[in-house]
Amino acid sequence: MTKYDFDEIVPRKNTNCIKYDFAKERGMPEGLLPMWVADMDFRTPPEVIERLVEVARHGIFGYSEVKDDYYGSVVGWFGRRLGHAFPKNSVVKTPGVVYALSLAIRAFTGPGDPVIVQTPVYYPFSGTVLQNGRRIVDNTLLYRNGRYYMDFADLEKKIVSEKAKLLLLCSPHNPVSRVWTPDELAELAGICLRHGCLIVSDEIHCDFVFGDRRHHILASIDKALDEICVTLTAPSKTFNLAGLQISNVFLPNPELKRLFKAEITRSGFSQLNAMGLAACQAAYDHGEPWLAALLEYLEANLALCESFFRDRLAPLRLIETEGTYLIWIDFKPLGLSHDEANKLVIEKAKLWLDEGTMFGPSGANFQRMNVACPRSVLLEALERLEKAIK
User: Fold this and answer.
1) Contact between residue 235 and residue 283 where contact means Cβ atoms under 8 Å apart
2) 95: preceding bond cis by omega (within 30 degrees)
3) pTM of the model
4) Confidence of residue 223 (pLDDT cuts 50, 70, 90)
5) Which residues are within 8 A (CB) of 249 and not within 5 positions of it... i.e. 6 or more apart?
6) pLDDT-derived band of residue 3, with 50, 70 and 90 as boundaries?
7) Is residue 1 over pLDDT 70?
8) Which of 32, 83, 180, 340 shows the greatest Cβ crowding within 10 Å of its Cβ?
């Protein structure tokens, strides 16, 4: 029996939690069961909590930096678990992956430049492109027989025709839950290397891969990618640390690193918060046993979803979840419009999910649901959905 109790319901209401306390502010009715934003309803590993208590008890929260052992912890995690040895000197710390995404767009492109995204995709990709005065070029994923694929022919055509010099990759893909294969990544890499298109690869969900699959860091596919690839990582999804604002960006190309750091300087940012730095290192040094237990629990949650959709939620279609703890649900078989499906979820099922068009037009009539919660909560959500569609 595991020493970690993922069945425990940890009260999150009245903690200034975006997921539970801000329905009204975000235009949603009160009383919905929130299964939307991508944080977990589980406490972070005990070793992380103990380290944060230790830092708090010290009582001084002045300007903080890290020594060499921090970088060893970060690169060691990816070397041990994913088999890729990033150089220590390639790491740049930022207060979040979305912040890093915005910096990269500003550092590597100019106003009005095209940036390629692969929708349906995590909505800050498109939002950050537009907010920085760049132009979206959509290399829409292909949806075939309940699975998503990259459209490589369309990608190469658009890189050439649009003279695009930056692509944003989501790997594993949020929200469609694809874990890209080495062959897929190699084909993507080949196209971008041929045409000198930089890749910013968001790999924040890399620790959530299920079954016999394995996450392959894009930069590990071809040594030549060191010249054109920027890898975004963070402990925030893996260890439920999003509120501590810590991410680590790998830039092996010294010129890309220089441009990126110059953009950080222009933004007025310097040191990260002391708690985030301490939590990150403690998680990467001591969090593997907790993560192993968590992955086992999430696999069982996903198995529950698969059987429930098959036996009790027809005709809804659950896209196979290869990675992330976010399931992607196809509502089109119900024959409802996108707005009607949203109304069913909110008003009848009393659920707060992420509606599909947030992720791009190709997400119409889909919903994203977070299953990183105690099993009793997940079962309640599924039963609410069953009652609504019956």
Assistant:
1) yes
2) no
3) 0.97
4) very high
5) 91, 92, 93, 94, 100, 230, 231, 232, 233, 260
6) confident
7) no
8) 180
Rounded to 10 degrees, the C-alpha dihedral 166/167/168/174 comes to 170
* 65-69: average pLDDT: 96
How many Å apart are CA 371 and CA 377, to the nearest integer? 9
Decide: 363 and 356 in contact? Cβ < 8 Å.
yes
Q: Which residue has the tokens 């041929």?
A: 194
CATH number for domain 61-286, candidates 3.60.21.10, 3.40.640.10, 1.10.150.130, 3.40.50.300: 3.40.640.10
Question: To which residue do tokens 């990150």 refer?
Answer: 280
How far apart CA 266 and CA 155 sit, in angstroms, is 32
For domain 18-45+288-389, give the CATH number: 3.90.1150.10
Query: 274-286 and 68-82 helices cross at what angle (nearest 10)?
Result: 40
Question: Above 50 in pLDDT, residue 56?
Answer: yes
Angstrom CA distances, 333 to 2, 58, 148, stand at 39, 57, 17
Side chain identity, residue 52: L
Answer whether 100's CB lies under 8 Å from 249's CB: yes
**How many whole angstroms separate alpha carbon 355 and alpha carbon 128?**
19
Question: pLDDT, tens digit, for every residue of 323-370?
Answer: 999 999 999 999 999 999 999 999 999 999 999 999 999 999 999 999
**Buried residues in 122-161 as b, exposed as e (16+ CB within 10 A):** bbbbbebbeebebebbbbbbeeeeeebebeeebbbebbee
| Token representation of residue 378 | 């997940």
- The structural domains of the chain, with segments of one domain joined by +, span 18-45+288-389, 61-286
pLDDT band of 89, cuts 50, 70, 90: very high
Are the C-beta atoms of 241 and 279 separated by less than 8 Å?
yes
pLDDT per residue as tens digits for the range 175-197? 999 999 999 999 999 999 999 99
126: CB partners within 8 A, 6+ apart: 117, 119, 136, 360
